[in-house]
Amino acid sequence: MNGPQLSELPDDAEQLRPYVSSLRRGALQAGELSAVRTFSQGFLLRFLRARDFDVELSLKLLLNYQRWRKESPEISTCLSPSSVLGLLNTSYHAVLPQRDHTGSRVLVYRIGQWVPKDWSAFQVFRVSLMTSEIISMETETQRRGLKAIFDLEGWSLGHALQINPSLARKISSVLSDSFPLKVRGIHLVNEPMFFRPVFAMIRPFLPDKIKQRIHMHGADFHDTLSDFFSPPVLPPEYGGEGPGIEESCQDWTNKLLQSENLLQQIATHPTGDIAVAPDDSLISEEAETEQLSEG
Ligand code: VIV
């Protein structure tokens, strides 16, 4: 039942090489990607790490990611932080400065800050996709995944009306098998009764593994959220001792704005592989060249 321990997974250049080659070969053989010459190793490693180096599952994830992008152009083709600056400036979203005790990234979404008449669900979705693209470049995040906290205080009918079955489908796909990030926890706080019908649209499409990782904390979330996150990780607004949520939102907004060019390149690239060097390049350029000439 249990997969491999993190400590047993390949880690250095020597060990990674055969996995990268084998996924690259699989991708080239897959008919759908035949137009693509090759993928960069940094890009392929995201998929391998997200699936603990199971090459077959990694290939499936890579194909799903490509399919999802194609089927969701209204979301995937415009990853411009400045185009949603008004939303970001309401302190809607932050990636917290500190990882949790397991090394996961912790993301906060304050849904109540989203005014549905000002911003479409597609624009809101794009914010998540931008953040996901950025954090999935981090080796540590590729290994340790993410946890998301959704603050649903202020959830209204106007929000609910924006979520139709097709969008619900797209939400469950990225959560399960269409984006190269391990989703290790989803925490809902302040969810009102009438969030249930929306959740009921998303839930059926989720695999059990993800369903089990969704926690509904309600309005008295302070006691239960602290079972999952230690005080230094969370902002005071969520019962912790870390920096305030507004400050973290501002910092992350700046980080997104600095990534404007990068994100636009990803959005317009046919496969999303813009071959950026990973944050801690593990395989030397030399090794990479060697691999390409392999065939
Ligand atoms: O985008 O790992 C009805 C996560 C999320 C992502 C993406 C990745 C990811 C955890 C989501 C979570 C948020 C891309 C890779 C699915 C975008 C959601 C956008 C919509 C419009 C927000 C509306 C509010 C939701 C609130 C509940 C959602 C949870 C049940 C996930």
Structure overview:
The protein is an alpha/beta fold. It has two domains: 3-71, Orthogonal Bundle (Helicase, Ruva Protein, domain 3); 81-258, Phosphatidylinositol Transfer Protein Sec14p (3-Layer(aba) Sandwich), CATH 3.40.525. The chain has 15 helices and five strands. Strands 1-2-3-4-5 form a five-stranded mixed beta sheet. Bound molecules: ligand VIV. The site of ligand VIV has 20 residues, from helix 6, strand 3, helix 9, strand 4 and helix 10. Ligand VIV is lined by residues 111, 121, 124-125, 128-129, 132, 146, 148, 150, 163, 171, 174-175, 179, 181, 183, 186, 198, 202.
Largest sheet, described in full? 5 strands, mixed
Strand content: 5-15%
Oligomer: single chain
- Residue-averaged pLDDT: 92
Number of helices: 15
Provide keyphrases for this structure.
295 residues; alpha/beta; Helicase, Ruva Protein, domain 3; Phosphatidylinositol Transfer Protein Sec14p; 2 domains; 15 helices; 5 strands; 46% helix; disordered C terminus; binds ligand VIV
Question: How are the secondary structure elements laid out?
Answer:
Blueprint: H1 13-29, H2 41-50, H3 55-71, H4 73-76, H5 85-88, E1 93-95, E2 105-110, H6 121-135, H7 139-144, E3 146-151, H8 157-160, H9 165-176, E4 183-189, H10 196-202, H11 208-211, E5 214-218, H12 221-225, H13 245-258, H14 260-268, H15 285-293
Parallel strand pairs: 2-3, 3-4, 4-5
Antiparallel strand pairs: 1-2
Helix pairs in contact: 1-2, 1-3, 2-3
The structure holds ligand VIV.
Ligand VIV binds next to helix 6, strand 3, helix 9, strand 4 and helix 10.
